[in-house]
Design a protein that fits this description.
Chain A is α+β, with helices and mostly antiparallel strands. Chain A is 24% helix and 26% strand. Chain B is globular and about 35 Å long. Classes of the chains: A alpha+beta (395), B mainly alpha (91).
């Protein structure tokens, strides 16, 4: 018998509202299955389970808001795999003690219909989700023809009706004010606890942009790559030489990340931001990173992110894009120990071979946690990113 | 269906529908035809790429990066889509 708990999805999460159960008692579940949807300050998040087993009881009913650590459901063992430890939920300083979930009695049966306060998201098949992600379709705006109204491939392949004029309620459960509070809380903790040091390095982007132009010239729009994907790849590869920047500060010491999982900061259209992980970014091609970025942006702004995507990042990148400022001095997202900022690419006078030329340049910045590393190491890291951007290999 | 076979009004609606999916909070009914879309609707480079991708998928036109400036406004995008033939790179 194991318990399935309300996870912590970040340094800023104290509680969540159970919005939807995707399993019922008697269902067999495998590690990694999405079993519930939880409303958080970052919107609706899909929650995965980290044990194999059979659902024996749903403890928390739909609509209940409960603290991190509360038992949401109980699992009976299927007798094979021992329960692996949940992956890093590095976030909370002190988990709140589990408390009973509100006044309503625990419901052992699957909820028939969510209460008005709980958003009903359309279900969708995995294939439909993939296609929707590739096409930029927001599933929340569609009606499905599958079982129980689920959105299936055929719905996406049918001629699309005119997109309805939406509003921010499209991101159901998303409350900009609550997100602002959560960001404020996490950043206050960062500034209070983390002794930041800051470095910057300006990099000539001529080679990278020329490579990108050649790369995109003969490709249809779905296959095109943005400069940000090159930056993310360069950061991921550079981390191999300075692993001290990739991981967490926990219990008074540095704990290396288990892989290079880059948190990609995404601005949400209603305000606020979220930084889900591009997993194992050091093993991905430029195309692979671009695909991951498109998928994350789409799901962060429209459909749903998964809980594990919010807890996985071992370092975060914020890229201001081509309408942003020239440079940013990031605030580290605890318990990570570093954050990389990428400014807008600007054309500036640059000395090339002893003379001045107009060159596209970008300012890379690093915020480092002085408890885990020094500026000397941070400087080597930025230099390595710059070197990687001068010699971009085939995708 | 390709844009050159559509009426100007249909093409305009197609562009507006595409924008509505990307900037759902925008009041597109009052979007001036000559407003710079990226400024007016606060589109970042990923949003704009998704805009181009959606137009490509619905018209078959390749819209190379060099042509992006032609799509900077609603009027510009409509004129561009009505003028360009579907491209060979269509998957």
């Amino acid at each position: 018998m194991t318990d399935f708990l309300m996870p912590s999805l970040g340094a800023d999460m104290e509680a969540g509202t159970l919005a939807e159960w995707l399993v019922k008692p008697g269902d067999a579940v495998k590690r990694g299955d999405v079993v519930a949807v939880v409303e958080t300050d970052k919107g609706a998040i899909e929650i995965e389970i980290f044990n194999d087993g059979v659902v024996s009881e749903l403890v928390v009913p739909v609509g209940a808001r409960v603290p991190v650590g509360t038992v949401l459901a109980r699992l009976g063992d299927t007798a094979q795999t021992p329960a692996p430890k949940p992956p890093l939920a590095p976030a909370v300083a002190a988990p709140s003690p589990p408390t009973p979930p509100s006044a309503s009695p625990p419901s052992a049966s699957p909820p028939s219909a969510p209460p008005p306060s709980a958003p009903a998201r359309p279900r969708s098949s995995p294939a439909a989700r993939r296609l929707a992600a590739a096409r930029g379709i927001d599933l929340a705006r569609m009606a499905g023809s599958g079982p129980g109204g689920a959105i299936v491939l055929a719905d996406l392949e049918a001629p699309r009706p005119a997109a309805p004029r939406g509003d921010l309620a499209a991101r159901r459960g998303f409350d900009p004010a609550a997100m602002r509070l959560a960001i404020g809380s996490a950043m206050s903790r960062s500034k209070r606890e983390i002794p930041h040091y800051y470095l910057s390095e300006t990099i000539d982007c001529t080679a990278a942009l020329a490579w990108l132009e050649r790369r995109n010239r003969d490709r249809a729009p779905p296959e095109r790559v943005l400069p940000a994907a090159l930056f993310v790849r360069a950061v991921a590869l550079a981390l191999a030489k300075t692993p001290e920047l990739n991981g967490y500060w926990q219990d008074g010491h540095f704990q290396p990340g288990g892989g290079v999982h880059i948190g990609w900061a995404i601005a949400l259209r209603g305000g606020g931001l979220v930084a889900p992980a591009i997993r194992d970014a050091d093993a991905l091609s430029v195309d692979g990173i671009m695909a991951a970025m498109r998928d994350l942006v789409l799901r962060a702004r429209g459909a749903r992110l998964r809980g594990s995507e919010l807890t996985a990042p071992t370092i975060t990148i914020t890229s201001l894009g081509d309408r942003g400022a020239e440079a940013v001095w990031p605030i580290i997202y605890p318990p990570q120990v570093a954050m990389v900022g990428i400014g807008r690419i600007v054309t500036r006078p640059w000395v090339v071979g002893g003379s001045i030329a107009a060159r596209p340049v970008v300012t890379l910045t690093l915020a480092g946690d002085h408890r885990a590393s020094d500026g000397h190491l941070g400087g080597r890291f930025l230099a390595e990113i710059g070197r990687r951007l001068q010699e971009i290999e085939a995708p | 269906m390709t844009a050159p076979n559509m009426t100007a009004a249909e093409t305009r609606q197609l562009v507006l529908d595409t924008l509505a999916a990307i900037a759902p909070e925008a009041d597109l009914a009052h979007l001036p035809g000559d407003a710079v879309l990226r400024e007016e609707l606060d589109l970042d480079s990923m949003d704009f790429l998704n805009f181009v991708t959606a137009l490509h998928e619905r018209t078959g036109i390749d819209i190379p990066e060099a042509d992006y400036p032609s799509l900077s406004t609603l009027d510009g995008a409509v004129a561009y889509l009505r003028r360009e033939p579907p491209g060979p790179a269509t998957a």
